[in-house]
Amino acid sequence: MKNVTDSFVSLGHWPSAGGFGFNTDILATNLINLSVVLGVLIYFGKGVLNDLLDNRKQRILSTIRNSEELRQAAIEQLEKARARLRKVETEANEYRVNGYSEIEREKENLINATSDNLERLENYKNETLLFEQQRAINQVRQRVFQQALQGALGTLNSCLNSELHFRTISANIGILGVMEE
């Protein structure tokens, strides 16, 4: 503390015509600089700090209001859900009391419908099998006919020489010429 007062006292003893000098007492100058900086920060930073605190306060209040609204909405939804649950339980009791005969009737109808479907599927299966058998028989007939025709053509081509072939063509042309007249 003596250093601080000494630095102020030493200001009074400076020679007036001597010029400008430096104070080399580090503790005294640091305290003065620190007090000046803190004073400037408090003076200018007070408004910014107040704005930041006000903004934070508004966000907190807004969050609290939103939370209250959400809580109220959740309470309302809970009440609606409870009312709906009571209604569903009442309906379930009614179905339970009145539903057994309906269930038996639906069960019987389902069994009859399933039986009818199985019968139709069996008929469809039999028709499909018959159709596939007929198609396979027709395919075999076509192959046999094609093979027989190819065999006959092969035999005919091997038996015909060019002279016999020429005579057959000429005779056919002659027959066509007579038919046109």
UniProtKB/TrEMBL annotation:
<dbReference type="InterPro" id="IPR002146">
    <property type="entry name" value="ATP_synth_b/b'su_bac/chlpt"/>
</dbReference>
<comment type="subunit">
    <text>F-type ATPases have 2 components, F(1) - the catalytic core - and F(0) - the membrane proton channel. F(1) has five subunits: alpha(3), beta(3), gamma(1), delta(1), epsilon(1). F(0) has four main subunits: a(1), b(1), b'(1) and c(10-14). The alpha and beta chains form an alternating ring which encloses part of the gamma chain. F(1) is attached to F(0) by a central stalk formed by the gamma and epsilon chains, while a peripheral stalk is formed by the delta, b and b' chains.</text>
</comment>
<comment type="similarity">
    <text>Belongs to the ATPase B chain family.</text>
</comment>
<keyword id="KW-0812">Transmembrane</keyword>
<protein>
    <recommendedName>
        <fullName>ATP synthase subunit b, chloroplastic</fullName>
    </recommendedName>
</protein>
<keyword id="KW-0066">ATP synthesis</keyword>
<dbReference type="GO" id="GO:0046933">
    <property type="term" value="F:proton-transporting ATP synthase activity, rotational mechanism"/>
</dbReference>
<dbReference type="Pfam" id="PF00430">
    <property type="entry name" value="ATP-synt_B"/>
</dbReference>
<keyword id="KW-0138">CF(0)</keyword>
<dbReference type="GO" id="GO:0009535">
    <property type="term" value="C:chloroplast thylakoid membrane"/>
</dbReference>
<feature type="coiled-coil region">
    <location>
        <begin position="64"/>
        <end position="124"/>
    </location>
</feature>
<dbReference type="GO" id="GO:0045259">
    <property type="term" value="C:proton-transporting ATP synthase complex"/>
</dbReference>
<comment type="function">
    <text>F(1)F(0) ATP synthase produces ATP from ADP in the presence of a proton or sodium gradient. F-type ATPases consist of two structural domains, F(1) containing the extramembraneous catalytic core and F(0) containing the membrane proton channel, linked together by a central stalk and a peripheral stalk. During catalysis, ATP synthesis in the catalytic domain of F(1) is coupled via a rotary mechanism of the central stalk subunits to proton translocation.</text>
</comment>
<keyword id="KW-0150">Chloroplast</keyword>
<keyword id="KW-0375">Hydrogen ion transport</keyword>
<keyword id="KW-1133">Transmembrane helix</keyword>
<comment type="function">
    <text>Component of the F(0) channel, it forms part of the peripheral stalk, linking F(1) to F(0).</text>
</comment>
<keyword id="KW-0934">Plastid</keyword>
<keyword id="KW-0472">Membrane</keyword>
<feature type="transmembrane region" description="Helical">
    <location>
        <begin position="31"/>
        <end position="49"/>
    </location>
</feature>
<keyword id="KW-0813">Transport</keyword>
<keyword id="KW-0175">Coiled coil</keyword>
<keyword id="KW-0406">Ion transport</keyword>
<keyword id="KW-0793">Thylakoid</keyword>
